Each structure stands twice: as structure tokens, then as C-alpha cells.
Amino acid sequence: MKHITTDEIVNLLDANEDLNIIDVREDFEVENGMIPGAVHIPLGSIPEKVSELDPSKEYILVCQGGVRSANACEYLEAQGFNVTNLEGGMMSYDGELEFK
């Protein structure tokens, strides 16, 4: 499984890179803010939403601490997707937040 650090993702966001970020946390968790541009798909909804994802794109998955997003990465990798897990999740992320 590929990993990205919070410093790396902040640098990519600062460089205006086009990132496909999926936040797999629960609704009550994303109320505290998400990485700008992230799409919210709770972990339990990933199997039913997988058909909405583009297999030609690379996705970065994030959760609160990095464990649930790692589980989502394993599932999506098995489906043929190119995914990367954000190490440490939102607990390690100190960049800009977006509130939805």
C-alpha cells in the first residue's frame, strides 16, 4: 500500500495540484473540517459508491487516524484502483480545512 505524509499532501495542495481525496470518516467527524476539495464517502459506503469512482484516477484516502483509510485502500486496491493512504490521518494534518 502506498502512503503519503501530511507534509507531502499540504505541499501538493499549496502547489494547486489536482488531487482526488476521499474522506472516509463518519458525518459527525467531517463536521470538524475536511481537506479542501475532498469528497466525503463514509467507509461503510465505499462498496456501494465504488462504481462512481474513475479507475483511471489516483485517489488519496483519509480518515481520523489512518486505519480506516488503510482498510478502504486495501478494498479499493483489490478492485483495481490506484490508491494512497494518508499517514496519521486528520490527527496529523495541520493544513487548511474546508467546512461543508
Automatic annotation (TrEMBL):
<protein>
    <submittedName>
        <fullName>Rhodanese domain protein</fullName>
    </submittedName>
</protein>
<dbReference type="InterPro" id="IPR036873">
    <property type="entry name" value="Rhodanese-like_dom_sf"/>
</dbReference>
<dbReference type="InterPro" id="IPR050229">
    <property type="entry name" value="GlpE_sulfurtransferase"/>
</dbReference>
<dbReference type="Pfam" id="PF00581">
    <property type="entry name" value="Rhodanese"/>
</dbReference>
<feature type="domain" description="Rhodanese">
    <location>
        <begin position="15"/>
        <end position="99"/>
    </location>
</feature>
<dbReference type="InterPro" id="IPR001763">
    <property type="entry name" value="Rhodanese-like_dom"/>
</dbReference>
